Amino acid sequence: MTPHHSTPSVWVVYNNRNEAENLIDRISDFSEGHLWDSSAVNDFLLNIDKHRSSWLVVDAKHAKDTKLMALAKKASTDYEFFRCLVIGSADHSEWPENSIHIEKNALSTSIIDRLRNESHVLRMASSRLRHMRRLQNR
Asked: How many CB atoms within 10 Å of residue 6?
């Protein structure tokens, strides 16, 4: 069995590198943050495979990136507890069904609070599901 980390993995795709690094620093108490690099798609997929839950946090500038949307849809179908938090997306239908959309002008504290709360919910759901599967396999 592959060991999984219970700390959520969060990949931040922001146009402004300083904002991304600041967000990663601010969420470090409840998650493992990563700065997105489009050349590291394999690292991204390997990383989300090793975590119970993973996030892709996308700013308004990257919310229309079709390659990113396709990757998010693939990851969403392949990994049960992968989610996207999209800030300022005009077209919600292009992102995976379980994505969370936040207004473009949302405060960073509201983004962080939402990410923390949703990560906690995913952690509980993952734990319950693992427990139920263990009981079913007895």
From this structure: 10
